[in-house]
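Sorry to interrupt, but I need a hand with the structure work. Could you write out one complete protein record for me, on any chain you like? Just paste the record in under my message, thanks.

. . .
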Amino acid sequence: MARGRLRIYLGAAPGVGKTYTMLQEGQRLRSLGTDVVVGLVEPHGRRPTAALAEGLETVPRRTVVHRGVSLTEMDLDAVLARRPQVALVDELAHTDVPGSRNAKRWQDVEELLDAGIDVVTTLNVQHLESLNDVVRQITGVTQHETLPDEVARRADQIELVDLLPETLRRRLVHGDVYPPDRIETALTHYFRVGNLTALRELALLWLADRVEEGLQRYRAEHGITAPWETRERILVGLTGGPEGETLIRRAARITARTPGSELLALHVVPGDGLVRTDPAALSHQRALVESLGGGYHQTTGEDIPEALLQFAQAENITQIVLGASRRGRFSLLLRAGVGQRTIHRSGPIDVHIVTHEAAAGASAPRPPRPIRGTGPVRYWSAIAGAALLLPLLTLVLTALRGTLGLPGALVLYMLAVVLTALVGGRLPALLTALAAALLTDYYFTPPPHSLKVERAVDIVALVVFFAAAWLVGTAAGVAARRTHQAMRATSEARALSRMAAAMMRGEALPTLLEQVRENFSFAAVSLLERDPEHGPEPRWYVVASAGARPPERPYDADVEARVDDRLTLAARGRGLSGDDRRILAACATQLGIAHTRGGLARGAAGAEPEEPGRPRAGALYLRPVDLDEALTAALDDLGPGGHSILLRLPERLPDVIADAALLARVLATLVADALRHSPPDAPPALTAEVEPDRVTVRITRVTADDTAGAPAGREGEGSALRLSRDLVEAMGGTVEDTTDGAPSVTITLPTSAPRPGPQG
C-alpha cells in the first residue's frame, strides 16, 4: 500500500489563517469529488472558520476522562476505519490526552499516512523543536508542545500562510482572533510587533531552507555545479582594510535593488593562521554587515581567489563585490591582484571591482604625500622653492669658490635646508639636504666635478652636514604636526562649542542638523532612529533632517556616525578624513543628547501639564501615519490593565497626518484617563469615523455620578485633556471635550492617501 501524502500549512503565529486555509482546501477537494473528512478541527470560537467546516463530513471525536475531566480527541481508529482519501487534522504539534494510544498528534498522523490516507494539517513555526530556544528568547514563552523538525521535513508539501504583523494585530484589535477579554493582554505580550516580525522571519527562513535543500538535492542528483540565479546572492570580500565599509555599502545597495536577494560577507584567513588585519576593523565591518541584514562568514585558505570562489559555489553566489587592489603598479606587474585572479576564474559569477580611496589606482599617479600638518600647498611650495634655490645658490657659490671654500658653501646650503624645513617640513628638508650634499661634493670637494671624495675631512664635513639637516628637518616636522594638532583641536572645540551653544539656546534638532550640514559642507544630513522591535531586519525612522533628499537609512549615506544602538547620524554629499570623522562623531553624540533631552522634556510636559508652552512644529516629524498602528501602539503603552476597552472601528482606516510617536502618546493618555475614571463593569469605548478629508476618534466613558472622587477625576481629566490638546493642535488637528450625556473626548486629524508602507 502506497504511503499517504502530507501537506502542512505553516504559520508564524495563531490567527494568520492556517485552519481557515486548510478548510478551504478541504472544500476545494470535496468539490472535485475527493473523499474528504474532518479528523479534527479547532476553530477556537472563530465563526468564519467554523462556518467553513460546514458541508464537510466530520468523524466524531472520542471522549477521554483525565483526572475527572472529560476531554475530546481525534478518534484515530474511527478515521482509519472510515478510510477516506484525505483527512483534515488540525494542530500537528498537539499533545494528546494522557491515556491515548500515542503521545503526540503527529504520531496519529503517521499512522494515517502509513495506512495510505493523505493528510492536510497545520503547524505554527514556534512548535518546531530546533527553534524552541530562539522562540523563548524572542517571546519569553517556553513552548511545551514541540514537533521534531524531521517530521515536518518529510512533508510532501509545505505551504506558508502569511500575514503582516500589522495586519494580524489589526485582526486582533477587531476581535477576529481572540475574545475581547484577551485582546489587550495579547497585544501587549505575545503579539507585539517585534515578536511577530521575528516569528515571521523564522517561518520564512525555515521554509526557504527547505526549498534550498530541495534545490541543492536536485542539482547534486543532476551534477549541476554552475550557479542558478533563482535569487541574487551578493558576496562581498573583506580584507579588514579601510575600504571595507565602502564595499559593504556598495554591496548593500546592489542587494536593496533586487527584492529577495541576500547579502553575505566573507573574510579569508591565511592558512598559516597569522593575523594580518586589524581585528577591531573586522569586528566593526561585521557589525555593519549584520546591521544591514547580511551574514558574516570566515574561511581559511592560502589562495584567496580560490577560497572566495569555493565559498561562492557552495552558497550559490551570483555576484561578488571586491575592492580595487591597494598594491602598486610594479607589484601588480609581478603578480595579478586578487580581483583580476578572481575574475579570471569566476566563470558565470559576476565580479564587481569597486574603487576606493585606498586603491592603488587612485593613489598611484600622486607623488609622495606631504607631511601631516604642512598641507599640500606648503609641501609642494617647499619642493619648488628648493628646486629653484639650489641651482641659483650653486651658481653664486661656484663664482665665490676661492673666497668661501667648502665651509662657506656648507653654511649657505644649510641655510637653504632650514628654510625648506620651515616651509615644507621634514621630507622636503631631507631631499634638499641630500641634493645639497651631492652638489657640495660635485663642485667643492677635490677632485672637482666628481662625486669621489679624496680627503677624510671632507667626508666628515658632508656627514655632519647631512646629519644636522636631518635633525633640523625632523624638528620642523614635529613642530608642524603639533601646529596641525592644535589647529584640529581648535576646530573641533569651535564646532562643539557652537553645537553646545545652540543646544543651550533650545534650538530644535533640524536647526542643529543644519549647522552640522553647513560645517561639513554636506548636501543633506539625517538623525535616524532604529525601531528596536522590528526584528532582525532593521526599520529606520527619520527623527529630523536638513538639506535636500536626506538619507532615510544608514546605507543610503556617504558618511555615518553611530550615536548608540538606536540612533545614527547619516550624511550625504562627500566623504570625510579620519580627523573630520572624529569631529562628526562628537557632534553626533551632542545631537543624541539633544534628542534625549527633548524626549525627557516631552515626558516632563506630560508629568506636569500645568507648565506653559507647547511643542514647536519644527521638532515634529509629520508624515502619513497608519491609525491602526497608532491605536495598537497606544494599547501597548498602557500595558495589561484591569479593564477592557470597547473598540468600534471601520474595516479600513485611512492614514492621518501626524507625528506617530506623539499620536500614540495622546491616545494612550486619553484612554488611560478614561480607564482610570470608569467603573470596572462599564469599560470606555473608542470609536472612529471616516470623513472625506479627516478622521474623528472619540473616547467615551460611562458617567461616574455615583463614583466617589469625581472631582479628582475631572481635575485629572482636565490635565490630560490640556496636554492632548497642545500636542494634537501642534500636529494640525483639534480636540474637543463633550460633557453632555456620556463624557467623551473627540480627536480630529487630517487624512492622507494611504501609503504602501512606512519609509525605511
Remarks:
- The longest helix spans residues 456-504.
- The first strand starts at residue 6 and ends at 11.
